[in-house]
Amino acid sequence: MQSPDLELFSFSDEGPWVVDPHDLAWRHNVDSLRDRVHRELPGLIRRRRVPPLPRIWRVTRTLGTAFGFWYLFDRRKGRELSRSMLSTRLRLSFQRLGPTYIKLGQILSSGEGIFPEEVVSQFRLLRDRVPAEHFDVVRATLEAELAGPLEETFASFEREPIAAASIAQVHRAVLRTGEEVVVKVQRRDVASLVRHDLAVMSFIAPLLVGRIPVSALANPPALIELFAQTIVEELDFRLEADSMLAIGRVLAMTNQRSIVVPRPHRTLVTRRMLVMECLSGYSWGDVEAMREAGIATQEVLRGLTIALLEGALLYGVFHGDLHGGNLFVQSGGRVALLDHGITGRLDEPQRRAFLRLLVGGTTNDLPSQIEALRGLGALPPDADTEQVIRDLGLDRPAQDITLLSAEELTAQIRDLTRQLLSYGVKMPKELMLFVKDLLFLDGAVATMAPEIDLLAEVAVIAAYFAQHHAAQIAEEVGVDVQSTPVDLDGLRASLGLSLDTRSITYREIQQRRETVREKFEEAGHGE
Predict the structure, then answer these.
(1) In sequence order, what DSSP letters do the residues of 13-51 get, joined into one string?
(2) Structural domain of 356
(3) Which of 56, 99, 355, 481 could make an S-S bridge to 466, C-beta 3.0–4.6 Å?
(4) Is 214 a domain residue?
(5) pLDDT tens for residues 160-181?
């Protein structure tokens, strides 16, 4: 017999307890808690006249030492080894600097295809292999949250964590009532340390505007605002537990039962402690074992992609931190979606603009995409749509960038960057989280479905939305996706493909990216 809470949420079929959203004491004031976090944000990122000098000194000394040792001992050891050594030194420095910088490292680890592979692979270790806090500290935190001895709540509690990351670490345990659970415990003093680090970052960020082209494009103060909002929300586990329910609810409403979230405990959720259902499965990277078990990895990836799109475009809520450490694939092919500390939330105008952006992409409607970006805040409100299209060359025929010389490619990137900066383009925080998730899924294709035809896959996903959500899309953006064919020319152009390209596998895309990377390196050596 299935659990009755499956009518509301996408949970495992037989849970250790039943979740009634109206009978969760920790959830009664969660909306006001979230509002308080947002009200607190401006004060946290306000640029002070005098920054916290002791923390600035420690950060400068730690990172400066890493760069100094690399400069003296590693930089002449060849390009790849030099990069690897620098990435390792930076990762260890971030680890020493604590939670805020570990979280930054985790964000860098999601930038496959953007940052060098040496950086991504090193910073990936910060997802769940950070040195754990001593068990005595964990016990003290839990007993403070429980207001009593650990043994009064848990029949057993594993001293060694199964994962340790920036904000918290996770332990297996068994409740006195017999249920196997995992317990997320916040690190000691993390809240005060994060606030000090945000003060340092908010002091430095404005100094970078206009000085480094890439940072200017990303808008450093806006990046700090996004970073502050996400990391401060992570400091209250009641918000995370509520996000678990929000995403589980969307998955149930869209009938995406191939993805499940763990049940949060009815009572054992506080600001610094989160007890939840124990879920397990194959690690995300163990593709060989999944295939041996008969799991269709391409279907797993497609389901996760559709769920991300449905949550963001139709309901305005989505998991904002997809990476391999947050996903298990269960024996039947279900995905267990973990760690909801970072959750994307779009208000109604943002969600509709987001929907227009993606629908405009599938129909190659450039004006609609530009107007949607303006609605999201990526472009100034007075930006002229047709002028933006002309200035950025979006109406030009697709060009195979692998055929360009290193100098031509570098010149094109430089010109495009200059045009974007002249328009004051910036990346809204909701769009940044979504793009980061897409980058993760893009990287996952390399191992889970390298021979997939990307053009055909886009058509399949578009057909799914036409079949299941045509009425809502037509009502909200005025496009009948059932009768409007998918125009793949825009995708071909974004990939630098000629318009007569009929199919391309992800493996071929990787080869093209490697060609472009080599051209950039060639251009760098020539300067």
Answers:
(1) SS-SS---TTS-GGGTTHHHHHHHHHHHHHHHSPPPSS-
(2) 348-526
(3) 481
(4) yes
(5) 999 888 899 999 999 999 999 9
